[in-house]
Amino acid sequence: MILAFVGTAGSGKTTLTGAFGKYLEGNGYSVAYVNLDTGVKNLPYSPDVDVRESVTAWELMEEGYGPNGAIVESYDRLLPAIGEYVSKILKLDGERDYVLIDTPGQMETFLFHEFGIRLMENLPEPLTVYLFSPDILRKPSDFCFARFFALMIDLRLGTTTVPALSKVDTVERIDDYRKFLDDIEYLTARLKLDPSTQGLLAYKMCSTLPELAPPTRVVYLSAKTGEGFDELETLAYEHYCTCGDLT
Amino acid sequence: MILAFVGTAGSGKTTLTGAFGKYLEGNGYSVAYVNLDTGVKNLPYSPDVDVRESVTAWELMEEGYGPNGAIVESYDRLLPAIGEYVSKILKLDGERDYVLIDTPGQMETFLFHEFGIRLMENLPEPLTVYLFSPDILRKPSDFCFARFFALMIDLRLGTTTVPALSKVDTVERIDDYRKFLDDIEYLTARLKLDPSTQGLLAYKMCSTLPELAPPTRVVYLSAKTGEGFDELETLAYEHYCTCGDLT
């Protein structure tokens, strides 16, 4: 089973890849780790595949690139080797129970760069976990944004995408978050109360979610406490073994 | 009038800010330039406001941050000064005909970080120009993705967002691109032919676009040839002077 953790810088991809892998190993599974971040310094896991063996953002900065340019250029340089990376991951997928993919630090590098798109297109039914952290959720329309973003990833990568709130150990009133994220009807009713242009757009977008989105449930994860890991394991199992029914 | 150019690293924000500003100045307007990118080295314009005076990604990397971490941390450090940046931009807006805002290199830093959200919330009706380059458009579902992304920016920032294809001088068959981007019905009909799961999602999402999106037209820009600059000027005028009707 292949799981790819996708999210913005700071959403907790790398920490979670390490912690979830450890959890799976503790449950007796064999796990492979793939690092796709050319700009990461330290990893909390030992990667079986690591793009930094081909190129790092650091060496490109030494060549004179700025940080943004170095990140983009590193994936331009990785692109010719995409076939090799796909082969390595497929081989690992045949040997181990789980392959966990830790995607580039900046999410857009994965979603907008051909490297990310082509890699995902060539893997057999990977499950994408879209990680977003509680600090991006400040008002009701943000919850609509987060739910829709999972759909955008699905549209872009062509993979089943599970929305996952990370760092739930930092949230005091998690039930308030759950209500907005789990219950689209509740969220839609709440958005209807906001008369602003932004509120109206959020209301209209949220109203279409039930017909657009597969009825995937949201998972609530903490790399610190391991909360939600059993749920994610179940979701991965359902995705691979019961024809993609993630309700 | 305030225009913010938003897009991924490499979509052409900085070059376009410079070139469009020059065009406006050539037409007799007074123009102010705002640079919000902490990681840019050289600018093709002389900034009136520049976040690099407060912090740069470079100095944070010298402190030991990786490129991704340095970018995020730089906006964390800018956050306490957000009020000053808003004031400076408002002052410029009072003095000049146009204020052009060149947003962070990585789009997600602007869309997911409180700095970007709060800045935009506090400006009077800025017009956001969502720049995407032709290389992200490989298959019909990608056109749906690009059109939807403009809507996501609108939802997130609460600003009217114009989708703009950049680097059109690099495209040989621009009419093919226009057909897919301008004519949602045509795109929807085309997507219906794709029986894959991704195709079905794209078809469903695209079908909802007419009711979700304001009927904003797409602009086609080239910083190299100046193509579309008159169109963008007209759109900005319509946004500010004719109650947001951008059809």
Automatic annotation (TrEMBL), chains A, B:
GO terms for molecular function: GTP binding; GTPase activity. The keyword Cytoplasm does not apply. Signal peptide: none annotated. SUPFAM superfamilies: P-loop containing nucleoside triphosphate hydrolases. Keywords: GTP-binding, Hydrolase, Nucleotide-binding. Coiled coil: none annotated. Belongs to the GPN-loop GTPase family. NCBIfam families: PRK13768.1-1. This is GTPase.
